[in-house]
Design goal:
The structure holds 2 protein chains of 2 kinds. By secondary structure, chain A is an alpha+beta fold. In chain A, about 50% of the residues lie in helices and about 20% in strands. Chain A has 14 helices and 18 strands. Chain A has a 5-stranded antiparallel β-sheet with strand order 2-1-5-4-3, with helices on both faces. By secondary structure, chain B is an alpha/beta fold. Chain B has 5 helices and 5 strands; from the N terminus they run βαβαβαβαβα. Chain B has a 5-stranded parallel β-sheet, with helices on both faces. In chain B, helix 2 packs parallel to helix 3 (about 60-70). The radius of gyration of chain B is 13 Å and the shape is globular. Chain B starts with a strand and ends with a helix. Classes of the chains: A alpha+beta, B alpha/beta. The interface of A and B includes residues 357, 358, 408 and 410 of A. The structure holds adenosine-5'-diphosphate.
Amino acid sequence: MERNYRKLWWQHCLAIIGFSVIPLLIVNYSLYKLFDRIYTEKVMDSLRSEVENRRDSIDLFFRERIAQLYTIANTNTFQQMTDEGYLNRIFEIMHAKSDSYMDIGVIDNEGRHLAYVGPYYEMLKQVNYKNEFWFNAVKANGLYISDIFMGFRKVPHFIIAVMVREKNTSWILRVTINLKNIDDIVQKAWAGTLSDAFIVNKKNVLQTRPRFGGNFLEVPAFPEYMSDSLKSHPYPDYSATVATKLERVTYSGMDAFFAAVPIDSTKWILVIKENPDEILTPLAKGQHWMLLLTAAGLAIIATGAALFTNTLINRIKETDRENDTNSDMLLQANKMIALSKMAAGIAHEVNNPLASIAEKAGWLKDLLAEEDIAGSANFAEFNESVDKIEQHVARARKIIHNLLGFARRMEPAKEKINVNNLLDETAGFLENEARYVNIRIDKQYEDNVPVITSDLSQIQQVVLNLLNNAIDAIGHDGTVTVSSHYHEKTSEVEINVADTGKGIAENDLNKIFDPFFTTKEVGKGTGLGLSISYSIIEKLGGKMKVQSKVGKGTVFTILLPKH
Amino acid sequence: MDTLRVLIVDDEDDFRETIVKRLNARKIQSEGAASGVKALEVLKDKDFDVIVLDVKMPDMDGIETLRHIKKLKPETEVIMLTGHASVEFGLKGMQLGAFDYVMKPAPLNELLDTIGQAYNKKRGLIH
Ligand SMILES: Nc1ncnc2c1ncn2[C@@H]1O[C@H](COP(=O)(O)OP(=O)(O)O)[C@@H](O)[C@H]1O
């Protein structure tokens, strides 16, 4: 049975790859996940400290302003402050320390703008703030920080107002603060090329101008540039954040880390956005390397599996080939055993009737020898018939003896044989017959062929058979070469019988040792010669081989052990 | 000179009877027995010089019969008739005291020769 080596190859190869690749992938994947988690945690941590540091800076800014306002309000009287010359001096001192102040005003309990220093004097001096929201808020809380607004100035700004109690009345000191300082602080958080930072109020309205996501007083949104339009996706709403919040947000084409933290001194929320691609670059690099290493590992495994499988399959093929040869030989041996049993059975069954026929014929002959019958008219006919019967019985007996000889399971004799002499003698039997059809028997014996221990008559029978076959194959005009050779290494004697005959068809080569295989006409060949020869040589511990080329000739080779 | 007395033991009737006839025609006083058991019965009453014994017979085979014969009449010569060209049986018979073995079917001349030799041997022993 022919094995499917291709299928076997694939099965084996895939099994090896499977068993090595799966653990490799599992290990790599879990390492990657672990690395990813740890790294992301670290990134988050740094993002947290970043956002909290910024928050602290902003907070500090506000606290300083508020403290300054309180100091000014409490160290100066309402009387002094309503004097615009005095107020102007104070404003100059404040301005010298920080250019964030845009103007300063003093408002009384009734909302009247009693003193003002700043660029919009004409416009603001007359304003009554009594009905303004912030006026009431500062009266209620003592402190008010506004959201951003553009106001008349068309510059984003906000106000801080503090209420001061003096005797039985109260007044309000209000400053307008330029956003620039806060913007500066916030913009310091634009670390990467894609990161962003901004402040929103409780209504999710932008208080600073983000790098990408919108403008003052808008809802922060992420712009998406499409081929024909600009679409913007709102950022997540962090206006209700009460404690530091960190998250990764992925939706509609956006993937971002957000960190949000409320600013204590105001009602604002600071938001930092980071692009994962940027801050996770080392992770991406790690991922890249891991993929590369995994791919290299896979390549090595695949190559190794293929090479290993190749070696294995070749070994299996070799073993199979050996097994095939062995089973061929076993088959031949079994055939011979079955055949010899059958031959013995047939010989025995045929033998008894044959013996009776022979005796009856003999008896007839005895009777014919008696004189009174000798005179009869048909005496000659009787006599001839009986002779013929005896003759054919003799022929049948010979066939049966041959068969029995084949079936005989005798221990082969062990005698000392000079192989060259044996060949010479055996060839001698046929020399006359061969000369008659103009076939030369060429002898090429090597002198170093040793004396071997084997069965002389059986070897002789085999050689005789080979010579007969060779002469038959030639028919007439040709050469039969008988040669001997000694293989010192293996202690084997080689006998070759080569002819220049018609050769053996390739199809027949593996059949010629089969019992009853013959190409000779009925009555001429029995098809037993070679199968008997084969079994004899095998029993003697030797080997028999054939090589043939149609039209060129045939060589039969016998190898016999020296002992 | 005593006449040569031969017993042919073979289960094949045609063979046995014809041989007996042919031997008798040659002035050899012979008888047949169809089996080993019958042969032993005949031997109780009569003596023979040579017994020709087929190796393969039903009931009691040639080797078994030979053992009994050699116990009963040790001086009688026995020739084994082997249907198998199995030399083993012939050799085994000879180990058990048979004179020789002849392969069946053998020409009568061959058998006569062997019988003659066996008879000579026996006479040599007696006289
Ligand atoms: N020397 C040879 N050259 C060609 N054919 C051969 C030779 N020897 C044997 N054969 C072939 O092998 C067959 C079997 O040979 P063998 O077993 O000796 O039986 P037989 O000779 O009775 O046919 C032959 O019939 C013949 O076809």
